[in-house]
Amino acid sequence: MSVLAATLKLDVRLQARSKLYVIGIVVSLMSGLIGRFMIGPRYASVALPILYLLSLGGTTYVFGASTVIAEKSQGTLRALRTSPLTVNAYLASKLLTLTAFAGLEGALLHAVGFGGVAFNPLPLVAGVLVLGSLYTLLGMGQVASQSSFTAFLFPGAMLVTMVAQLPALSAFDIGPTALWYCVPTQGPFLLIRAAFQPLATWQWIYAVTMSSVTIVALAWWARRRFIRLIGLQVRR
Q: 108: closest CA among 192, 33, 185?
């Protein structure tokens, strides 16, 4: 079994044991129920991108950070410095498992809250996976220098989530439009909106470009921080 495959298997087991999956499913179901009984299918094109941004994005961001903090507190990361595990395999495993779970969360939210609403599945799936990847990398990169969940949350996580979730205001045409396009999460947010309403050509170009550039930049940033602050090996 390869190092990455073994790490994926271990991560899934540890994430399940930590109740991360249970928490994520509960949040998705609650968000779906809010959509079903308080918003309704008529407003799916506006409500769903916002619900994905606020709930799904928030859980992957916190999950990515909490797994790193747990491994720090248990001494796991210190032990991994002398193992065959590389920083690339470590980050790839977290990214794959948490992003895949983000896709499941998104499917549950949609089925419970807006089942039966017509949509284009390709941009929706792309937007949800990009959003999950973005938040996972952001949380892991940020928590690399933290030793406790409280230190991670205040004030860093509070400020980051406030900025990252600003594109939700663009759905209501609140504030200067150009400002929301400076926020990286506007890329996946637009992809999700494209599943329910048409985008202009320039918006498609922006959404794909911003999403791609943001993921690459965050992956590079998180990798550098884990090498410098935690000491995981670059290669074996």
A: 33
